[in-house]
Amino acid sequence: MLTTIGPKEITMPRPTFPLLVLVAVVLLLPGGSLVQAAPADRPITCSGPIVPHAQVAVRTGTGGQLVDRAADVGDAVKQGQVLARLDATEARNAVEQLRIALNRSQIGLDRAKCEAEMTARALDLARKRLEAAMRMGEAKLRDAAAKAARVKQLWEKAVATQEDAEAAQAAVAQAEGELAMMRLQQDELKNQDLAVEAKRLDVKRAQTEVEMDKHALDAASERLARIQITAPIDGVVTACEAQAGQSVPAGAAIFTIADSSRLYVLVNVAEADIALLQPGEAATFTTPACAGRTFGGSVARIAPASIQLDTRVAFEVRIAVNDNDRAALRLGMTANVRITPKRPAGER
């Protein structure tokens, strides 16, 4: 290679050692996490936040005014612990009114059952009495008809008088008339079956009202129970979205609880390095808050799909923090991670 300096030319000797070129691509990711594509003989370094195993939004089961809040951001809570209470006045009044309505409908059901039973019994008794009277009427008609036939024979032999024959025929007509009236009463009793069926329908309607009132009372009682907002899991409160005295709607998320029983570091690894990582790969990291201390962990999960960062591609990697290091760490801390992949001997 020739370099011109003024009028003279000086020949520069070629270097006898190889020129090492190290290219590092560094990207600033959303949230401050850092991705660095490592050369083949260097560890993978990246940074990201410390995150919990899971986060749960605690929502109100019913709407109302928040009268008491017993937890704040940063508090450690246990499952079932009361976090807040809503005003119970309206819910209690609703429960009391529905309880009164249920008692009223239960009384109506009992009355309907009693009336239906009395109507059915009265009809059954009337039917039995009529059947007995009809049997007597039929026997009376047979006797009257037989007597009339004998009297007619005697009248034809001039043994009985005309008056006797007419009286016997009149007795037959009277028995027939009485039996006809009984048959009409029998038809009327059939119509009373409809009245019994109507009473049974009244019972069914009353039963429906009782069931509806029971469901309404159960729902109101459940709403009353929901005025007390409790923690669904053990963890740390990471957000509070309502203050005492504030009105909140049903279903509003007023707390967020992080399950910190397991901690992770969430980082993004460059596309060029992701093939070098495997789940279970050991990792170390440091945090600005714990200067001079190194924490341990391992690769817990590698995202199956990439994310696009400007013109670069990266993969989300979750690093599980060792249990014995968890006590010194806090959610949201920044962790500077170092992973040395176990490369095959031929690639080193």
Concise synopsis of the structure shown:
The protein is an alpha+beta fold and 348 residues long.
Could you explain how this protein is built, in words?
With 348 residues, the protein is an alpha+beta fold. It has 3 helices and 17 strands. The protein has helices at 89-156, 162-225, 271-274; strands at 2-5, 8-11, 25-28, 34-37, 44-59, 64-69, 76-77, 82-86, 228-230, 235-240, 247-248, 253-270, 282-286, 295-302, 307-309, 312-321, 334-339. Strands 5-12-16-14-13-17 form a 6-stranded antiparallel β-barrel. The longest helix is centred in the middle third of the chain and has 68 residues, at 89-156.
CATH hierarchy class name of the largest domain: Mainly Beta
Radius of gyration: 49 Å
The CATH fourth-level homologous superfamily of the largest domain: Efflux pump adaptor protein, beta barrel domain
Strand order in the sheet with the most strands: 5-12-16-14-13-17
Number of strands: 17
Structural class, by secondary structure, is alpha+beta
* CATH topology annotation of the largest domain: Elongation Factor Tu (Ef-tu), domain 3
* Shape call: rod-shaped
Low-confidence stretches: 1-32
Corresponding CATH architecture of the largest domain: Beta Barrel
Biggest sheet, in brief? Answer: 6 strands, antiparallel, barrel
User: Averaging pLDDT over every residue, what do you get?
Assistant: 83
Domain module tally: 2
Tally of alpha and pi helices: 3
Distance between the termini: 34 Å
The string of secondary-structure elements, in order, is EEEEEEEEHHEEEEHEEEEE
Helix content: 25-40%
